[in-house]
Amino acid sequence: MRIGEIAALVGVTSRAIRHYHHIGLLPEPARRANGYRAYTVRDAVLLARIRRLTEIGLSLDEVRDVLADDAGRELAEVLSELDADLARQEREIHERRQVLAALLEAPPASDGPLSPALAALLERAPATGSPAAAKDREHLLLLDAAGDGAGAELYAALRPLADDPGVAVLYERLDELAGAPADDPRVPALAADLAAAVPDEVLAVIPEGEPSAAGWGRVVLDDYPPAQREVVRRVMETLAARMRRRTSWEQ
Predict the structure, then answer these.
(1) Residues of the chain with CATH 1.10.1660.10
(2) CA-to-CA distance for 63 and 54, rounded, in angstroms?
(3) Apex CA 156: angle with CA 205 and CA 233, to 5°?
């Protein structure tokens, strides 16, 4: 194969190949009598591996180290590894297309594209004019967009809350505290009732260490005025204590 042919086969540019030759990453093959480089299947396999390693974020120096560890392996072994890698990429593409198909089938949303799991949760939630409920929705949208670890499992665990009419009453009570000070006497009771409404299934899928005043918890707290912030802070503390007890029981 000539340089243009191997470049087209592997999906890189001829310029990239010449650069790899220049820095010693890809050995330069022997030249034919006419002066053209003659590339082999092994060269193509090595070039494909370089391409894959750079695509996953390795620097060229790191790629060099990986290739040095692979030196001396049989061609069939390297080919099998590349085949497995391509199969993995196919599965990832298939999974992404499934998510895309679900988004395309869903009705247009003013919130922008949502994961199918969150879209299903929000569809079940009753319509309400509660500012506190709207704020919770915004937090879920942020969680979904950020790709936080809990994902679909968390949204599934929250479905019973979406179906519970008593949650609307809790939101109304939280709305009433919008302009109140942090020491409002209604705070403790509401915090206790909100924490009690959260099922254990939700706690089971919350990443370890949350809810807390650090990380995600701090972002949420900063979004509330004083009395509501105090309610949410107390709820986080109560849920964190429940999570610790749950962990100790499981151990």
Answers:
(1) 3-71
(2) 7
(3) 55
Contact 132, 174 (CB under 8 A): yes
Question: Distances from the Cα of 247 to the Cαs of 2, 84, 200, 240, 241, in angstroms?
Answer: 62, 38, 12, 11, 10
Q: Give me 66's structure tokens.
A: 């990986």
Q: Which two tokens stand for residue 62?
A: 């790191």
Q: Model pTM greater than 0.70?
A: no
Q: How far is CA 53 from CA 46, 47, 190, in A?
A: 11, 10, 53
CATH topology of domain 3-71: Multidrug-efflux Transporter Regulator; Chain: A; Domain 2 (1.10.1660)
- Evaluate whether 96 touches 184 at the Cβ level (below 8 Å): no
Full DSSP string of 5-50: HHHHHHT--HHHHHHHHHTTSSPPPPB-TTS-B---HHHHHHHHHH
CA-based torsion, 46, 48, 50, 53: positive or negative: negative
Q: What is the pLDDT along the chain (251 residues), one digit of tens a residue?
A: 899 999 998 889 999 999 999 999 999 998 888 888 899 888 888 898 898 888 877 788 888 887 877 665 565 666 677 778 778 878 888 877 776 676 566 555 555 567 778 878 888 888 888 999 988 888 887 777 655 445 778 888 888 888 888 899 999 999 999 999 999 999 999 999 999 998 888 888 775 544 554 456 666 788 889 999 999 999 988 988 888 876 666 55
